[in-house]
Structures are given as structure tokens and as C-alpha cells.
Amino acid sequence: MARKPRETFGSRMGMLLAMAGSAIGLGNIWRFPYTLGKNGGAAFLLIYVIMLLFICLPVMISEYLIGRRGGSNPFRTFDRLAPGSRWRWMGFIAVLASACILSFYCVVGGWSVKYLDDACSGRLMGYEGDYAQFFGSFISSPWKPLAYTLLFLGMTGLIIAFGVRKGIERMSKIMISVLFVIIVLVVIRSLSLPGAVEGVRYMFVPDFSKVTADTCIAAMGQAFFSLSIGCGTILTYASYVHKDENIAASSAWIAFFDTAFAVIAGLAIIPAVYAIALMNGTDPDVSAGPGLVFITLPGVFQSMPLGGVAAVLFFLALLLAAITSAISLMEVVVAFIIEELHRSRMRAVLLSFVLCGGVGVFCSLSFGPLEGFRLFGLSVFDFFDYITSNIMLPVGGLLLAIFAGWRLRRANYLDELTNGGSLKLPRWLALTIYYLVKLVAPLAISLIFLNCILS
Ligand code: PHE
Fold first, then answer.
1. Ligand 1 neighbour 320 (Cβ under 6 A)
2. Does any ligand 1 atom lie closer than 6 A to the CB of residue 262?
3. Is there an atom of ligand 1 within 6 Å of 231 CB?
4. Please, which pLDDT band fits residue 446 given cuts at 50, 70 and 90?
5. Quick one: pLDDT at residue 155?
6. Rounded mean pLDDT of the chain?
7. pLDDT in the model for residue 2
8. Banded pLDDT at 424 (limits 50, 70, 90)
9. N or C end of the chain: which has fewer CB within 10 A?
């Protein structure tokens, strides 16, 4: 059967920014600073970077390579590269994983819409009570967070409906550029507060006493989540990439951007939290967990000069980052529906909206009316967050590494990596990447899992 011509990204810059947009998201701004705070600051950062270089980057390169070679959605890509094997079900699970992530991601995305709305209208800075109460009463109310969740998902769907170039690429380009400018402005404001240097010291002076077996799994889970690997998003975006793209270089750029952005987001938040705590004579609470951004930070903005402007900019940045990632997640599901169920893009978007929105409703309600309902001892939201980040993504990464290292032929892997030999990638580097994927990554991921199960 003749293949339908597929859309591709229009330019190298557009492709890089779309992939960076997928990687840079709530994981960087919302998750990274509090995970860093909980796990010993710079000590965590060090472990994170090691994981990134030796496990995640090679896996990312492989996911990219598999995606470009297969040129389709995850299900069909695995079927093309290993015809008739069970690997295509791995592709299907990747589609499911993306849908599961999007289902809880859109809830937090909805919160950022709400906070931006409140920051713009002055309700956030004008609030006189405790922000824990502000946040708690919002997320536990039955309707409001639902409406924001669906609004966020609707905006995501609308962008995707315009297609790869006009929707995804164009919006990612604009949003990521604006995002960088905003976050730099917020960093300047945060670092110029008296006492901010204490927060910087906290981020960059390691405290190894807080490092445990769990730190490694937290660092690995965070790296997989933050780089968007293991669930078919990079694979799907890679299927829209030209054959002459340098896979290793692009992946390294995206990983670098993503990590730099996480550190910058940390610099926007942690020094400000320290400075304001110092001013108020309280303890800086940078390990406040998920509440850091939604509870601690509004209090910080409220106490600092120009805080109202900083709050608007910050929550706008959070929303932009969340949307560009949500787009990449929804596109995995949409590409699958278009190519496997033969629906138009518009219908595929609607179907994904209904599917992810349906599960998202339960995730959102698990902070309110469904609070008592547990799945394996966790609320619906925590369940989806936990199984996707800590299990599905690393297992997805493990399987990708096994597929790339053991199922694809070495010659094919190297051929794809060097674009049929036309790229001047040193042979030692290509071989190092290959063996990191074939041996080091699967072993390291398995050991980290084992360590966690046994401890
Ligand atoms: N990388 C995104 C973030 O940091 C989340 C994400 C995970 C997106 C997996 C796509 C796939 O927020």
C-alpha cells in the first residue's frame, strides 16, 4: 500500500525548539526545584547529570533514531523495524503511557491557568490569608479545577489541530522563546533580593548526607520525565524529522537546554524563597514538595517589591512550558489514531481530548470529592504520576535500549546515527553511544530498580 506523504518539521530550529518544548515543562519548573530541595541540593544535581550522560542521553539518541528510521507512530514504527514481532505492543504501551501522563499533566496545567488568571486579576497578590488554604480550597472544589483542566486540554488540542508545521512547530517556537525571556527576568528579580546568595549556595554546595538509594531512583525518574523519553514523544517527533539531521548533536542540545532550563528555573525559585524567609525570620522551605510553586511561591511574590509583575510572568512561563509539553504528549496519541484508526487529524484530536480529559477528570477530582478513593493505596492523581514517571518511563527506556542495542543490527544503528556515513561523527563516539545503549543503560536501569525493590 502506498504510504501517505507525512508532514515534516519546516526547519532545523523549529524541530529543535519543538523537542526542547516537549522536554521543558512542569518537570523543570514544578518538579525539579522541589526534588532538588528534598534530595540534598547540589548532590542531587551531580547524580542527575551523571544519570543524564550515561543513561538518559544514550536512550534519548536511540529513541530519536528509532523514530526517524521507522517514520511513523510508535506502534507502526516498531512493526516496521521488527515486522511481525511483539515489539509493536511496546509501541502501543508507549501510546498508552503518553495518554496516562497527559491525563494528570493537564490537571497541573489547569492549575497554572488558574494561577495566571488570578495573578493577572490581582486576586492572587491581594489574598490575605494562608496560601496553603488558597490552594487547598481551589483544588478540592468539585467544579473549578475541572473546568481549568479541560480548558488547558482544549488549548492543547486546538494547537495540535493545526498540524505539525502550523500548529506544533510554530507555537513551540514562539512559546519557548517567550519562556526563556520571562524566566531570565524572574531570575534577575530573584537574585537581586538581599540574602538570595544563601539559596544559590544551597543549590550548588552538595549535601551528601541526604543521598540514599531513593535519590538515585528519584534522579533517574526525574531525568526520564524531564527529557520526555520512554513514552514515544521523542519517537513521534523524530518521525517528522528530515533524514539529514544529526541525531546525536540534536539530542545533546536538547538535553543541555533542558538541564540548563531546570537549573535556571531553580535559580528563579530557590534564592527567592531563601531571601524572603530571611527577611521574615522564618525557615526557608524549599523541600515543600508539589506545593512549592503553588503555595510557597505566591507568598514569596507577595513579600517582594514588584512581586505582582513577577507572579504574572512566572505563571505565564509555567503555562507556556506546560502547554508545549502537553502538545508533544497529545501528538503521540493523535498520530496513533490518525495512522492506525484512519481518522482525520481533527477527529483524532477530539478523541484524544475525550480520552485524556475523561481520565483527567478523575485525577482532578481525586483532590476533592474522590479524595478517599484509592488505587493501590494512592489517590488517582498520585497513582498516574507514580506509575508513569517511576515505572512506565524507565521501563520504556529500558525496552528502548534493549531494542536499539539487541534487536537492531549494529551496522544499522551506526548507519542511522551517521546518516549513512555522510556525517563526520568520529567512529569512537558512535561506538561509545552504541555500547552505552547496548550494555550500560540496560544494566544501570535494572540495577537502580533492583536496589529500590530490595531497600
Ligand atoms: N518533559 C516534560 C516536562 O518536563 C514532561 C513530559 C514527559 C513530556 C514525558 C512528554 C513526555 O514537564
1. no
2. no
3. yes
4. very high
5. 97
6. 91
7. 46
8. confident
9. N
| CA 179 – CA 251 distance, rounded (Å) | 20
Cα–Cα distance list, 288 to 98, 297, 379 (Å): 27, 10, 19
pLDDT per position as a tens digit, 162-196: 999 899 999 999 999 999 899 998 899 889 999 89
Domain boundaries, the chain: 12-454
| Position in ligand 1 atom list of the atom nearest CA 98 | 11
**DSSP-assigned states of every residue in 223-254:** HHHHHT-SSSHHHHHHTTS-TT--HHHHHHHH
pTM reported for the whole predicted model:
0.92
Q: What is the pLDDT of residue 285?
A: 75
Q: Looking at 32-36, 248-252, 405-409, which range is the least confident one? A: 32-36
Instruction: Pick the residue whose CA is nearest to atom 10 on ligand 1.
Output: 228
Candidate from 48, 56, 226, 327 with most ligand 1 atoms within 8 A of CB, to mutate:
226
Residue 89 CB contacts under 8 Å (≥ 6 apart), including other chains: none
Alpha helix ranges (H) inside 162-192: 170-191
Ligand 1 neighbour 219 (Cβ under 6 A): no
As a whole number of angstroms, the distance between CA 404 and CA 408 comes to 5
What ligand 1 atom has the least distance to the C-alpha of 328?
A: 10
Q: What are phi and psi of 206, to 5 degrees?
A: -70, 145
197 CA → ligand 1 middle, Å: 30
* Whole-angstrom distance, CA of residue 75 vs CA of residue 86: 10
Cα separation, 164 vs 332, whole angstroms: 12
153 φ/ψ angles, rounded to the nearest 5 degrees: -65, -35
CATH domain 12-454 topology: Amino acid/polyamine transporter I (1.20.1740)
The tens digit of pLDDT for each residue in 58-96 reads 999 999 999 999 999 999 999 999 998 999 999 999 999
Query: Residue 299 — φ and ψ, nearest 5°?
Result: -65, -40
